[in-house]
Specification:
The protein is of the alpha+beta class. Helix content is about 40%, strand content about 25%. The chain is built from 12 helices and 12 strands. A 5-stranded antiparallel sheet has the order 7-6-5-4-8. It is elongated, with a radius of gyration of 27 Å. The protein starts with a helix and ends with a helix.
């Protein structure tokens, strides 16, 4: 059904763009096979009006003109539907090229690469990538494996409320959340959704890998103001553990946990195959430490140690 509609819309757009004079409904119906197969005039009229509205929503400028006989015609003038010349400098071209590489694992990979090819065909300059030229194996990527990514991305774009089942790291069961999604942010290889939690009446950050089941759209508009992008990014970093307010002391098995070692404020080698690290401690550190399993032991503070143990017990119950 989706393919048939897309083909019908394409045929209608080509008819409207390819004519020098307005075409009536009667002429359009006789030119497009899908309209010929409509069971009645009413069915055709409903189909045509929906298609016309869909094309206009996609950005096609369709004019409605009445001829001398009083018959209504439609056309899409090419000069009204022509994009302005594309002018990109080398830095902008490099940013677009990097973006296309970043999305290789997402479902948008095809659209991203196709758009890049069209921009290059239109004259976008080729950006020299010194990393790619000298280190072909080094390539930036942001993995997108979660099924919730695409519906949440569309909901953020359309400012559409959603609901989903979410399981916190220290919870045995998932709970339904009603959320007004603001934006998606990637941090330390994980995707997070920032938005307004309607049930709690406050901003919240959700890790996509903990969303279970299907993301469901909800009717209605946002009830809370959407903050600017910088504020939202700072919120995600704070919830995910980027903003440290104090330090923690942990034991880390030798040869393990290199991401933790890179953030260590101090490191002391122990004699029993373990190292002692002082690391920044902010919101979300407990969830990150759990990912290293038996290779990490929290020494202090006591509240961080308790949070890590609670998360491990919740995992063990499964």
């Amino acid at each position: 059904m989706a393919i048939a509609k897309a083909e019908r819309l394409m045929n209608l757009a080509l008819c409207l763009l390819g004519t020098r004079r307005p075409l009536s409904k009667r002429e359009l119906r006789g030119s497009i096979e899908a309209y010929l197969e409509a069971g009645s005039d009413d069915a055709f009229n409903r189909m045509f009006e929906r298609d016309k509205d869909d094309l206009r929503e996609l950005g096609l400028v369709i004019e409605t003109v009445e001829n001398l006989d009083g018959e209504t015609g439609y056309l899409a003038r090419r000069d009204s539907n022509r994009l302005p010349p594309i002018t990109l400098d080398a830095e902008e071209a490099a940013a677009l090229g990097l973006a296309a590489k970043v999305w290789q694992q997402a479902r948008l990979a095809g659209a991203a690469s196709g758009a890049l090819q069209k921009l290059r065909a239109a004259g976008m300059p080729e950006a020299e990538d010194s990393y790619e030229a000298h280190h072909g194996a080094l390539e930036p990527r942001i993995p997108v494996h979660e099924a919730a990514f695409e519906p949440l991305m569309l909901a953020c774009r359309d400012r559409r409320p959603v609901s989903f089942d979410y399981r916190k790291a220290n919870a045995a069961r998932a709970e339904q959340r009603q959320v007004e999604p603001w934006t998606l942010e990637c941090w330390r290889g994980h995707w997070y959704l920032a938005g307004w939690d309607r049930d709690r009446g406050a901003e919240r950050v959700f890790r996509l890998s903990r969303i279970t089941g299907r993301v469901r759209s909800r009717v209605g508009t946002f009830t809370a103001p959407v903050p600017d992008a910088v504020t939202v990014r700072e919120t995600v970093e704070s919830w995910a553990g980027e903003t440290a307010t104090r330090s923690a002391l942990i034991r880390l098995r030798a040869g393990c946990g290199y991401p933790l070692r890179s953030r260590a404020l101090a490191t002391r080698r122990l004699a029993d195959g373990w190292d002692e690290l002082e690391i920044p401690y902010g919101h979300g550190l407990d969830a990150w430490l759990v990912e290293f399993g038996p290779d990490v032991v929290v020494l202090e503070p006591a509240d961080l140690r308790a949070d890590v143990l609670d998360r491990l017990r919740a995992v063990a119950k499964d």
